[in-house]
Amino acid sequence: MTTPRLRASLDGLPAYKAGQGPATRSDLVAYKISSNENPYPPLPGVMDAVMRAAADMNRYPDPFSTRLIAALAERFDVPAEHLALGTGSVALCGQLVDAVADPGDEVMYAWRSFEAYPIWTQIAGARSVQIPLLPDERHDLDAMADAVTDRTRLIFVCSPNNPTGQVVHRDELTRFLDRVPSDVLVVLDEAYVEFADDPRVPDGIEMYRDRPNVAVLRTFSKAYGLAALRVGFAIAHEPVAQALRKLALPFGISTIAEEAALASLEREPELLERVAELSRARAAMVASLRDQGWVVAEQQANFVWLRLGEQALDFAAACETQGLTVRPFAGEGVRVTIAEPEANARFLTVANEWLHDQAASAG
Length: 363
Prior knowledge:
alpha/beta, 7-stranded mixed beta sheet, 3-stranded antiparallel beta sheet
């Protein structure tokens, strides 16, 4: 018996590995610190907006998310025609690949970086060009520019980089963009940019303004704490933004999600106070880890990256025994979300004990 013929490009397609939730424990509170979620609950005003919108869940949402588009255009001082929404910035990544890459074309990105990039590239039948990170875990923008060919259609620059937490600097990004051909789309994936406090970090939206081949991705999932509602947005010049709108899932942004995003924009100062607190907690965790003896590169997102190599899975298992679910990348490292103070403190205890155990075993 024959079966339906599926696309060959899907053979061996890696599955997206979302952060796992913790197992229920009776002896201690378990924490999920694997998905870079904002640990704060919704602001009361945001929750009120969600509850009001839920009363209309029997009706389809506005297919154009008109009010949210208008609010974002005002907030970021961009034309409404330069905006496109998606069910999280991850969906927009896929739409961007579909918009520019035919089978055999090249999509370039640093590696390790966001694990959705190779998935979307393979789905499109395009070819991934992965450029290794520098020894300090940052993008090697010179090598990326050198690797551009006449088949390169799209370049992702993830800053702060997921999962390693490093950023590109304004001067090096400007040089890079000056080298990339104008017909190659450069996507600045800034899902975590609100957490960055390094003054050398550029604002991608300022970079996009006079560069028609630059698009910027942002999300309400991280800093704004709306991960479950799936609202991301792209800012790009009209031909790219229009293509994204053509490829968008109809009615993808629910009424509840749109109202929550609008309420979050109205309360942005209060939300950004929470972001600043998480950034301070990240800096404190990095300092504590370094005091313990860990080698930790500069971090600018709402997580910490430990380059553990072949010990990544063992370290994750040690965290799990203490009720902490982290995100391991086998053979590479572990990403740890900045979470509730209790979770952060417990993680530092586990990390310190692990390091002492490793030193004892080596000695």
